[in-house]
Each structure stands twice: as C-alpha cells, then as structure tokens.
Write a structure and sequence with these properties.
Number of strands: 9
Distance between the termini: 33 Å
Structural class: alpha+beta
Helix content: 10-25%
Strand content: 25-35%
Length: about 170
C-alpha cells in the first residue's frame, strides 16, 4: 500500500471535511477545519492529506497557537484534527500523516507541537504530558491526553503557561 502525503488544495476541501466527519462520527471537526482555513494564521503547507492512488484517505492539520504566561508568549503548533477514513484506520496512514507533518513543521522552523489526543497513540511519536513542561490548557481534560513534543531540543525547557487556542476550537 503506497501512501503519498501532500499539502491540501482547494479541490480537497469537501473530501477533507467528509473524512473528518466520518472519523470523528460528527460534523464538528470538519467544520473546525473549514473555519480554521479562513483564519489569517492558517498555514496551507501544514494542512496535509494522505492519498492512496488518487483517493484522499486521511488528513492532518497543524495550526499556530500560543502558550501564554504572565510574562511571556511562546509560539507553538496544535496538531488538530487528524483523521483517517474509518475502514482504513490501523493501517499506518495516520502514522504517515503525523511523521510527515512533524518533519514538515520542523523544517519550517517550528519548535514544538501540542496535541489533545489518545494517550496510547501519540507517545509513539515522542509526545509526553504537557504538564512535564508546566503547560496547561483551558479545556478540562485528563493530564495524560494533553501532550507536548519538542521539535527542537529543549525548545520547551523555559516555557510554561496556558495554551491559547484560536476561538474556532471553542465550538467543538
């Protein structure tokens, strides 16, 4: 099974929304991607699709966020959402999306990524609880599902604070 990862284009929008809706079993994530695309901070090269042949079978989005403390603001990325067509989950498509997306983010100069996701899945890519870095979020979630990853060594060593997600995330 050959999987190709590439940035999204306008022709992909409808399929990306459909895959997110199918993967999460609701329309919220598909709408989130549509809304984030309209946000001026959206980075087209960090909205990636996984293709098998000419068919899009998965999607991942990395979106700029800030980690704010009383004295400082630190730029980071949120990995959200990531989706694969349900029938194809477990075949490594999501892993390809995460690995390619993290590599692309690092190449573009981003230093860290925050994810709110499965505590058995994301540690495979090096994510650890964000609390290790004294990073919190405004959502009431278990510690083990709110995670951070340094793309650059010690990028979060001196960072602490609360992740400020764009307003679009509040509608989830």
């Amino acid at each position: 099974m050959k999987i190709q990862i590439r940035p999204e284009n306008k022709n992909d929008y409808k399929t990306i929304s459909m895959i997110n809706d199918m993967a999460f079993g609701r329309e919220a994530e598909g709408l989130l991607v549509e809304k984030l695309r309209k946000n001026k901070k959206f980075i087209k090269d960090l909205s990636l699709v996984a293709c098998m042949g000419n068919e899009i079978v998965g999607h991942i989005l990395f979106f700029p966020i800030e980690i704010k403390s009383e004295n400082n603001t630190f730029d980071s990325l949120a990995l959200a959402p990531m989706s694969v067509i349900p029938e194809l989950q477990g075949l490594g498509i999501g892993s390809h999306l995460v690995e390619n997306g993290l590599a692309k983010a690092k190449k573009m100069g981003h230093q860290s990524v925050i994810v709110l996701g499965h505590d058995k899945y994301y540690p495979e890519f090096g994510f650890t609880p964000a609390s290790k870095f004294n990073i919190t979020c405004t959502f009431d979630v278990p510690n083990e599902v709110f995670m951070a990853l340094e793309l650059e060594k010690d990028a979060l060593k001196t960072v602490s604070g609360c992740v400020e997600y764009p307003k679009e995330f509040n509608d989830l």
